[in-house]
Amino acid sequence: MMINDCIIMAGGSGTRLWPASTSKRPKQFLPISRAGSGSQEGSGESTFFNEALERALALIDKTGDGQVIIIAGKGHVPHIIEACAQFDADDRQHFVLIPEPLAKNTAAAIACGIRYADLVFGHDRNMLVLTSDHIIQPIAAFKADVAAAEVFVRQDTLVVFGIPPQSPATGYGYIEAAELLSVPEDRQKVFRVASFREKPDRYRAEAFLASGRFYWNSGMFAFSSRCMLKEFLHHAPEVMVPFNVLPVPQEKSYTITRRLRILEAWPGLPEAYAEAQNISFDYAIAEKSERTVMVAAGFAWRDVGSWDEYIRLVGDTGSEVYCSGTPPAASGDSTKALDSSCFVDSDIPVALCGAEDLIVVVRSGKDGATPAVLIAKKGETQGVKEIVEKIKVSGRTELL
Known about the structure:
It is a single chain. This protein has helices at about 35, 50-60, 75-85, 90, 105-120, 140-155, 200-210, 225-235, 235-245, 270-275, 280-285, 305-315, 385-395; strands spanning about 5-10, 30-35, 45, 65-75, 95-100, 125-130, 135, 160-165, 175-180, 190-195, 215-225, 255, 260-265, 290-295, 300, 320-325, 345, 350, 360-365, 370-375. It folds into 2 domains: about 5-305, Spore Coat Polysaccharide Biosynthesis Protein SpsA, Chain A, CATH 3.90.550; about 315-400, no CATH class. It is globular and about 65 Å long. It is about 30% helix and about 25% strand. A 5-stranded mixed β-barrel has the order 8-11-9-10-14. Strands 17-19-20 form a 3-stranded mixed sheet, covered by helices on one side. About 45% of the residues are buried. It is α/β, with parallel strands linked by helices. The protein starts with a strand and ends in a 6-residue tail after the last helix. Helix 5 packs across helix 8 and helix 8 crosses helix 9.
């Protein structure tokens, strides 16, 4: 297997886990339990983003000039510096961070990463686009699927990773598989893509599941930079052309913070982002390309798209919680809600009396953000998306 570079898309606001996840500290930087996520390395607490970095390092050509190209908003730079600092110096030499001057969609982020790799390393790179806010396990299965994808990447094909659906979910886009193509020796299933489908209603999602032909769209892709430059220029020149005028980054364009290279002053990047069309990679390229195939994932994948899913992942948050009916904690011990069916994630002490099956999330504003509290019944947290929309309509965007 030879993947030269990984592009990690680390933008977004992750509002489904509001108020812990906001535009300043989105979901990918929230803590997760390593035991829950399936990580086999290290101990203690990690984040979605940390584990995306681990996956990327396991896949790139670390013996050569393989790079992990991180594309993120300027407001997320401190979180990325903190995450990258947890890796050793040998790993960090493969990281480069490109802060986005504007919030644009995934097509612009991917075009930016391709242009960077093309200028710095040449235009014949095998590249993998990774999300930064999903749980993927085990890494061995993911590596096997990427190896299967790489076979088709060498044939100038765009590869998308499809997730076998476990339910008639309405929160994901779907991929319709066509004929089964020749498969690599490891026997991963690779299909030609018949179509991409929008997030369906319940009735349509049930039909997709029953057909056996549809997969959830993971948002992860593999391709050669040479092939994708051509695809962009053919299908979405409004995205790629602004980036094509960017010059080779000079050393003075970088800063180094805690051994992380940050391309903070790439001449022309703000203008390129301002001019580039605001569109997703799926709309701009994947749905239009005639060269798209799908690897049916052999790895387990979790989007963790609600508080109900998140609490199953993290377990105890370490919050200071006092419950009536529980024995008092020993002096100096963290107080646990041992007899409570509630989940609490709070940065200030919380007391519960007679409360059952609640999710309580408190952000007091200690970090300078606007204070906010979420109280939800377990099993009802899909409603957080509606709450966020109502906050937007009310004009209280500082809460997000």
